[in-house]
Amino acid sequence: MKKSLGVLIVTMVCVTAMLSAQAPGAISERFGLGTFRYQGKTFTGLVLRDAYVVDLAAAAVASKQQVPGSVLAIIEQYDNGVGDRIKVVVRDVAGRLATNRPAYIYDLKAVDALQPFEPRTALYARSNYIDHAAEMDARNANPTAPEPKVPPSLPGIWERGANDTRQNPYLFVVPPTIFSGDGDAIQVPLKRSQIDYECELVGVMGKLARRVPVDRLKDYIFGYTQSNDVSDRQNRAPETGGGGDWWIQKGQDTFKPWGPYIVPKEFLDPLNMQMKFTLSGKVLQDDNTKNATHNMYELAHYASNLLTLRPGDILTIGTPPGVGTARKPPVYMKAGDVSVCAYEGLGTLTNPVIAESANTTSSR
To answer: What domain range includes position 36?
Structure first.
């Protein structure tokens, strides 16, 4: 009797495991979401193994699943059943990648990756790595400046613990019209020659967030991608000397490529992600998000104390050290260069660098 009972228990455990493996949410295949174009057709794509792009609408029909038609709509509804439906599609498609591929599965290298969507509110972090802050301070060295002190808390916005000696978070807003996608050109503006790179991790909000504690922010972020926070350094040194403003430095056309796709948060750890930036094949940044002064959740908490974050808003954690302006001699992007920003698990954001034409005119 005991032996029979043991066999029954083992059988039940095995059946439960098999059913769990077939459940919509029980899947280990990592995927990304983006917007792509192939032979003139623009579609929402499912990226698998950093090698394939699946036309999600067509694949969803084949898998008998209902999925929203845009990346932003998916983000807004992901936790309300859409995420599980997409995982069913991933499960169905994964077994057909190597052989007998349906016509709606393309090679990633064969499609054009557009920006995932046009961001709503875009918040970028300033000097959020200690070594990057130090290299910028050295660039703008002022030997008579007093030793920095621990800044005071900002009541209701950023309240530090007793032993927290870090700087306060610093975010700035970026115009949504200057964003572009993978493969799009970064433009060196007319009469500007000190155009710098900053490879940054991007968090994409998935839920409305207002005054959310740090330890709960993980649930409010949909996923992650990357961006090159292109910066115009000309007339910026020293930064307190009345030179160009932050719009000049950060807000010019083409200065914010991002993508190529967004990976949902369940597949990544934003607190420990390796990154690498190369310019025309030369490695100039090689670091890890664990070295950031304020992590993604802390910055999102800070931001949510200032305004209500919405699905589709994006937030970066700033760039690691190694920027061009702090190098000796400085290294700036120039026409003919190729910029490649890559965070672990997020593919590669590749952008050629061109010079703005003197004949550029408004299309209006």
So the answer is: 12-113
By CB atoms closer than 10 A (0-12, 13-18, 19+), residue 129 is: buried
Report CA 356 to chain centroid distance, whole Å.
Answer: 26
Upstream peptide bond of 155 is cis (omega within 30 degrees of 0): no
Answer whether 70's CB lies under 8 Å from 44's CB: yes
- What is the reported pLDDT for 148? 57
Cβ count within 10 A of residue 316: 27
Residues 109 and 157 in one domain: no
Low-confidence ranges of the chain (pLDDT < 50): 1-25, 240, 363-364
Taking CA atoms, 86 is separated from 18, 32, 35, 90, in Å, by 20, 11, 15, 6
**The predicted structure's pLDDT at residue 359:** 73
Helix or strand holding residue 22 (H, E): helix 2-22
Q: Does residue 5 fall inside a structural domain?
A: no
